[in-house]
Design goal:
With about 290 residues, the protein is α/β, with parallel strands linked by helices. The protein is built from twelve helices and eight strands.
Length: about 290
């Protein structure tokens, strides 16, 4: 079954789908091995793992290349942050086809100007509703696989507030978005108002952000509001950064790695994340 069809089936189900975040193929493989049925690729994590903050410094081609590695590494469907589509509606057509060819099941495109900022940074600026709608129409017309999922992401909450989010998302729904994703802030009444407005009309995508400006909810609370996905984008790379800093600091200060050994994944387990057992079987089959 195509990854796009798997994703369509997941969001058509009766329960909220938990999605594990990834910034590279290894983190995606770990999410799949844990049991997540959906992987979401963080734009912020992809940027940080390449040495840049999430302020629009990575190109579309770099994001596509990373997505290709991830999609090839797992069997579960993958949704990727495609920033603002890397240009105007014409650019969005190429963006959609590039991500389709990379093997991902869907992307989200946001209504920010370029260069964009992380959804939980202040200082964002927005394109017009009309321009975003043109991008969404272009995305739908460009895709070759009808099951490929185009998610409209609205970043207006921190810029203009709830009323603009609702007005924009009505337009994005009309322009053909397959799902709606609005970046939220700490006011739960705003989140509930968004969900109540759209929950029975289109699948809703929830970013369970570790940002201090977003409430920390149990997935059951997200499901009760009517969201179809609950996505843990940034937690893996933030956990990795904390662990790397602590381990490397201790090694630097002590001059050896003896005291951190119990905090390391065994080497054989590290190979197994990447599927060493399958490679060994292929070696036997092909006599390599």
């Amino acid at each position: 079954m195509r990854a796009t069809t798997k994703l369509r089936q997941l969001i058509a189900g009766n329960h909220t789908v938990m999605a594990g975040g990834a910034h590279d193929a290894m983190s995606a493989q770990i999410a799949e091995q844990i049991g997540f049925k959906l992987c979401v690729v963080t734009g912020a994590g992809t940027s940080v793992s390449r040495g840049y903050p999430d302020v629009g410094l990575l190109t579309g081609e770099e994001m596509v290349a990373n997505a290709r590695y991830i999609a090839e590494a797992v069997e579960i469907p993958v949704i990727v942050d495609a920033d603002n589509g890397y240009g105007n509606a014409i650019n969005v057509r190429r963006t959609v086809r590039a991500f389709e060819q990379a093997g991902v099941a869907g992307i989200h495109i946001e209504d920010q100007t370029w260069p964009k900022r992380c959804g939980h940074m202040f200082g964002k600026t927005l394109i017009s509703t009309e321009e975003m709608c043109a991008k969404l129409r272009a995305a739908q017309e460009a895709k070759r696989d009808p099951d490929f999922v185009v998610i409209a992401r609205c970043d207006a909450m921190l810029v203009n507030g709830l009323d603009d989010v609702l007005e924009r998302c009505e337009a994005y729904l009309g322009a053909g978005a397959d799902m709606l994703f609005a970046e939220m802030r700490e006011d739960m009444d705003e989140t509930r108002a968004f969900a109540e407005r759209f929950r029975d009309r289109i699948p809703l995508h929830y970013n369970h952000s570790p940002s201090p400006m977003v409430p920390k909810l149990h997935v059951s609370e997200v499901e009760a509001m009517g969201f179809k996905t609950c996505c843990f984008y940034a937690q893996p790379i933030m956990a990795a950064a904390k662990a790397i800093r602590e381990v490397m600091t201790e090694i630097y200060e002590t001059g050896n790695a003896k005291t951190v050994q119990d905090r390391l994944v065994p080497l054989d387990d590290l190979w197994e994340i990447g599927g060493i057992a399958e490679v060994r079987e292929l070696e036997k089959r092909y006599g390599s």
